[in-house]
């Protein structure tokens, strides 16, 4: 068994700027090409698609490169459910960045959705039913207090 | 621990009762799908399944362990997810986290096992010592083996959390003074009942991998697809090497020669510094640690292979994978000397034979 | 003990030991044999010149023999050089050697090594086909010929399989690759593979002999 002396260590000068060649070798460009393919398909009448950013090996710098290249668009929304979820359309229309955070504002999941509108922003049928009964309740309460 | 929750409630009902909106539920399902390394297209199916899922009772048994795995689980950087998980499951016994102690704790354990016989999940943390009748690890006078045997009887499934319970881990490392064994070895030898077993190895396992396995069981009510070592293929199907972001450097032949040299600072491959990535199956390269911040290779240190069996006994962490135990210089010199001796002897015999032939001519 | 640990541990120790024992045995056993005294008058005393000339001249076949043997020479060079490149310029192999002799050197890009490996396998297969399809060589070939071919091609093939993750889990493919190399190590000293050491002396001696006798080639 080798001892500590067999572990190669050499300390040189001050550490330089981080990242090195990693960013150039990274996965940002392949992901963008995938997004492009999905967008083409969507534009031709196809289905929306979602990319899970946690499912791919992102080299240091990839995340920032993706953000830089996609940019920021006109729409941004925050959903307040079990912590904030930040949704924004990137500068590339049809490409949305959905970032789920927990109650202490840590990221729990991150998706890039190629779609007309991310599912989480939509109001589903069951919620409409809830909404209707909610509104009826509020109207009834208001009318009751108005007649008092 | 949570015993007053109505266990007949589905998970969906329980969450809505707690005031979680449908958007919140959808967010939970999306995060869970991401956790289980399932494609986003599966979210609707997961939402449907989780909505109808029942809440299983979970018993967490800690044996010969360092508590690193329990720490890892509670560090799962999705406290929302985790708290939901702990509301989704009914964690009826966990020594580090529970408030109860002493006989109250023991009673809680036995009540949970009795009430949910055949349906509860057992999480095992740490190896089980067998030497000297198992005296090396006991709780309330009972050996780990006795506790596990009793718990496994009525379990629906067993999850071995961490390399110690999956493969024996550090207690099993040479010379294994306590006779430590893994859960699977106990099932194979018949010491405990054979139940569906999931090995979530790693020293410790990645937090979200533990939660992901629980989430899968919760969602689908069954054990996920497993590899030859009983580990869920979703997280242990690929080697670190095959998913490593530094792979292009390996392929181009760019290696760091020592820690902190030019190559190391440029993020080159750590093969020469002993990285065991090629033979290690885990999700570190994609899922990473601390909420996706980094993993050992990204931080500049080679993979130790901590999710593999016997990783403590596979040679130095700093010797490259392609080196081996070729012996010693003295040993080889001895072999060479022996060979030379035999050769000289053979030559001597041949020379005598040659002389005989010459004389006859 | 799992297969990989066995291949990198006890199997390696024993095969390396047997290799050194065997090689020294053969070298001493052959070079200590008596040589027939040459009673002819020496036409030249610069025997070393002759030895070097012998080594150089045997690198390529004589013009008269070329039609029959040049293909074998070409295929032979392809797989020998290919093997040398793969063995000595693939970084994991360099590290293996460095671990034993203490010295390492720079490697070549992996893709280049993989292609070279494939070419080496092709050349080796071509040589076997030639050996079997020619009635003379088929008649003359013995177990040593075939088994030596096998222990030479097995590490290259298993190495490529390991890289491609083809056929089994990576750690098993790696173990089989290492074991196949260990088989070569053990077979080496007791087979025609010893030509690695002997060819220098054989060709040199022939050249020196020709020089002494004053023949031209």
Q: How would the global form of chain A be characterised?
A: elongated
Low-pLDDT residue intervals, each spanning 5 or more residues of chain C: none
Distance between the termini of chain C: 57 Å
- Over the alpha carbons, how many angstroms does the gyration radius of chain A reach? 24 Å
Number of strands of chain A: 5
CATH architecture of chain A: 2-Layer Sandwich
What does the oligomeric state look like here? heterotrimer
- Fraction of residues in H or I helices of chain C: over 70%
Q: Please tell me what the overall shape of chain C is.
A: globular
Largest sheet: number of strands, sense, barrel closure of chain A = 5 strands, antiparallel
Looking at the overall shape, the CATH architecture of chain C is: Up-down Bundle
Keywords for this entry:
heterotrimer; A: 148 residues; alpha+beta; Ribosomal Protein S8, Chain: A, domain 1; five-stranded antiparallel β-sheet; 4 helices; 20% strand; B: 361 residues; alpha/beta; Rossmann fold; Cytochrome-c3 Hydrogenase, Chain A, domain 2; five-stranded parallel β-sheet; two-stranded antiparallel sheet; 42% helix; 10% strand; disordered N terminus
